[in-house]
């Protein structure tokens, strides 16, 4: 075991503070990563504050990790010391179930091992990226291409793949009209990626406050959902609507914005169940769907795609001592568009 520095929530709802944690020895197929940057995802805040219950404390959040390989186990073939690597929301899976064999490790029948706030396959707690080092099996490490700066790459490991996967699956591309609901950490990546895929992109945001940003990020149109005329004007417009918000939506109103056979895909979810008049699906053969991150192979495809198109996240780099303040600013939607911790400050 190696003792390394980390930022942790000592118990539910407590502010994060500097501490030390143990990382496992580098095994045959493991790599040791010298973490350089860790993004702050909205779900870090939920979990550190035990919003979903059953949190494992002390908790070191962080599943948007970018760094450099510092050591490799004897069986490692994909990486060498000095390589630029990333780790996202999961660090292991069974490797043998149908989902794993199809490259959809996020849907592993035994459950994937989450990067933090989980127990690994030996029953040891996992600790995330708000730390100086991480040991991970090479299968769950991604190669970060030279074309993307490490700090701008970190958020791609969650926000990037969470939006790339559904955009690809539901065919965002030339001739398709895509709406992105919400322009936050996820939404801003959805706009960049959908634009790079060649789709006509519309942002649906509560107000026009971030309109200039949205257009700069690649949106063709920008509408305020607080204005009821938006829903009249855009009725029957979109092939795909990607909702990145966790506030409860008026699903009937959004489904009416879809073309025949269009799909409303959710990557954000309200905590409470929603009710839906199914005629809003039946009329127009419309669908409502969900999507969870992406498999490892698809995550690599996303990173390669982002490198080719010069895409990284829009970030504000902070020191570890600013994490608690950053959490408050995320909750107040006061970040454009992702905080990234410089782990050298831990
Ligand atoms: Zn995340
Ligand atoms: Zn599996």
* CATH topology tier name of the largest domain: Quinone Oxidoreductase, Chain A, domain 1
What is the CATH first-level class name of the largest domain? Alpha Beta
Looking at the structure, what is the overall shape? globular
Helix content: 10-25%
CA distance, first residue to last residue: 19 Å
Query: What fraction of residues sit in β-strands?
Result: 25-35%
Question: Key terms for this structure?
Answer:
26% strand, 11 helices, Rossmann fold, seven-stranded mixed beta sheet, binds zinc ion, 2 domains, six-stranded parallel beta sheet, single chain, 17 strands, Quinone Oxidoreductase, Chain A, domain 1, alpha/beta, 346 residues
């Amino acid at each position: 075991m190696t003792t390394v520095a980390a930022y942790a929530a000592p118990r539910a709802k407590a502010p994060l503070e500097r501490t030390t944690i143990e990382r496992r020895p580098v095994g045959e197929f493991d790599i040791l990563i010298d973490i350089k940057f860790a993004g702050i995802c909205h779900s870090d805040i939920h979990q550190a504050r035990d919003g979903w219950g059953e949190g494992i404390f002390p908790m070191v959040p962080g599943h948007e990790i970018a760094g450099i390989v510092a050591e490799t186990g004897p069986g490692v073939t994909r990486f060498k010391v000095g390589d630029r690597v990333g780790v996202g929301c999961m660090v292991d899976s069974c490797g043998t179930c149908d989902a794993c064999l199809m490259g959809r490790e996020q849907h592993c029948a035994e459950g994937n091992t989450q990067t933090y706030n989980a127990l690994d396959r030996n029953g040891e707690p996992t600790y995330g990226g708000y730390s100086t080092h991480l040991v991970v099996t090479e299968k769950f490490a991604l190669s970060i291409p030279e074309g993307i700066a490490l700090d701008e790459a970190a958020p791609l490991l969650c926000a990037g793949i969470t939006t790339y996967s559904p955009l690809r699956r539901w065919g965002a591309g030339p001739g398709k009209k895509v709406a992105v609901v919400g322009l936050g950490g996820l939404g801003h990546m959805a706009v960049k990626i959908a634009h790079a895929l060649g789709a006509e992109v519309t942002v649906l945001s509560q107000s026009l406050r971030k309109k200039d940003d949205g257009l700069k990020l690649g949106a063709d149109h920008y509408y305020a959902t607080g204005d009821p005329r938006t829903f009249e004007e855009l009725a029957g417009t979109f092939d795909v609507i990607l909702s990145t918000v966790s506030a409860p939506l008026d699903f009937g109103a959004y489904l009416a914005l879809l073309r025949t056979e269009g799909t409303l895909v959710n990557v954000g979810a309200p905590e409470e169940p929603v009710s839906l008049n199914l005629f809003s699906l039946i009329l127009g053969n419309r669908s409502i769907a969900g999507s969870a991150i992406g498999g490892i192979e698809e995550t690599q495809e996303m990173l390669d795609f982002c490198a080719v198109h010069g895409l990284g996240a829009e970030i504000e780099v902070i020191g570890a001592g600013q994490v608690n303040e950053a959490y408050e600013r995320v909750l107040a939607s006061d970040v454009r568009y992702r905080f990234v911790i410089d782990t050298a400050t831990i």
